[in-house]
Known about the structure:
The complex is a heterodimer of chains A (about 250) and B (about 220).
Chain A: E1 12-14, E2 37-38, E3 42-43, E4 54-58, E5 61-65, H1 73-86, E6 91-96, H2 100-110, E7 116-122, H3 129-139, E8 145-150, H4 154-161, E9 168-172, E10 175-179, E11 185-191, H5 196-208, E12 213-216, H6 222-230, E13 235-238
Parallel strand pairs in A: 1-13, 2-6, 3-6, 6-7, 7-8, 8-9, 9-12, 12-13
Antiparallel strand pairs in A: 4-5, 5-11, 10-11
Helix pairs in contact in A: 2-3, 3-4
Chain B: E1 2-14, E2 17-23, E3 35-40, E4 47-55, E5 58-61, E6 74-81, E7 93-98, H1 107-115, E8 119-123, E9 136-138, H2 143-146, E10 152-158, H3 165-168, E11 181-186, E12 201-204, E13 207-210, E14 217-219, H4 220-223
Parallel strand pairs in B: 7-8, 7-10, 8-9, 10-11
Antiparallel strand pairs in B: 1-2, 1-6, 2-5, 3-4, 3-6, 4-5, 11-14, 12-13
Amino acid sequence: MSKYDLAFATPLMNAAGSLGFTPEGRGPVDLNRLGAFITNPVSLSSRTPAHARCCQSYPGGFLLHTGYPNPGLNQVIRRCRAKWARAPLPVIVHILGETPDQVATAVRRLEGLEGVMGVELGLPAEIDRTAAVELAQVGLGELPLIVRLPLERAIDLAHSVARLSLAAVSLGPPRGVLTNASGESTRGRLYGPAVFPLAMAAVASLARSGIPVIGAGGVYNPQNAEAMLAVGALAVQVDTILWTAGWLNKSG
Amino acid sequence: MRAARGRVDEIYFSPGGTQARITCPARLIPAPGQYLQATSQDAILSTALFLAGSAQGGFISAPSLPENWTPGTSLSLWGPLGHGFQLPANLQRLGLIAVSGLFARLAPLVERALAQGTAVTLFTDHPPGQLPAALEVYPLGEYPALAAWPDFLVVDLSLEDIPRLHSILGLPADGRPPCPGQALVHTTMPCAGLAECGVCAVELRRGWKLACKDGPVFDLRDILA
């Protein structure tokens, strides 16, 4: 893997799904403190919101189930390419792909777009090693490729994809299940400080193995970010702390 | 939209839940139907504060509030956010429907409407106390029989209530409201429009919209898809 294909002014960026499709200077987040902007996950075809979408809190965090709604890659490019070209920081487009054709098509469409410095490929949570390598392989192209691994399987999958010429791997939110007051179960992505120790363990393990890793998961203060960098993270992604008046906000 | 510091000055217990008197700069006070994103120290998620009434140096927020907020709780504020209510000029008869029984978010409209000589009727199964004498109140079930009265209808409902809105309004499944109107869709908005996360997505007549940035007040005809 080559970690030198990516260069960030500062080793901090937002995680996919945390700040929309374009960096908005008018928002509360101080974009000057980020080294790159990662878009919301984008699929080739449009996706509607999940039927049982929810945000459910528990001690130490919350579960999100949304279905990653988005208007599809063509619409996103049409709406956002001008803003990406004018963006005050480099843009990394996060793509969702379940088949090699989808990934290859998406990556090719992003190549040559002004302002787009890289692609982050989000792997499905239940993907096997062979399929993970196949998807990552077809994602390689003119743009540096980051492969986002589900946190709970990061160590398992990273050693397989690490043989490819990726720019880095990053860590996606782990999945969990909660039941609501009506007894209905929902499976979704987990966010919040409780995720941090899991993320730290994964970052430390991957960094020790020499795999360029962008740490993420439960980073809620500057100390968390520094700790990840100290154990070897190439950079750190922050996610839902950006939805509160955290340390990266203009008032923070 | 601006950022500022604010504070919880008082907590009130009401039938609909806890309300607070929030101190904040005047430029941040949300208009009726808009909201303010508020975060207390160390909170993992922010809270959407809707206007329920006016107060010196700030405003009264509608229920409900995080359990750990107490008088003196310091807040980081961002907003005001979203699209609020737009009542027509020279409105003669305003109908208000509190589907989930929570009147607080509609209360600011009553004051303004009565001040400009508009007759106001509230339909709710949980009538709050201390209402203006000029405000008529009927049970929710009475609305269909009185549907011809309002010139304009304002509805406050949760995302989960939308599927039964036709029934509440006494309309057939593909029916249209008898007058123009707006609906405030109340739902969890964890990203407050920053991320388009999709949790607050509302299916309208012409596709999906987000309550946090496209709403939370929508045209009533679009809600009745």
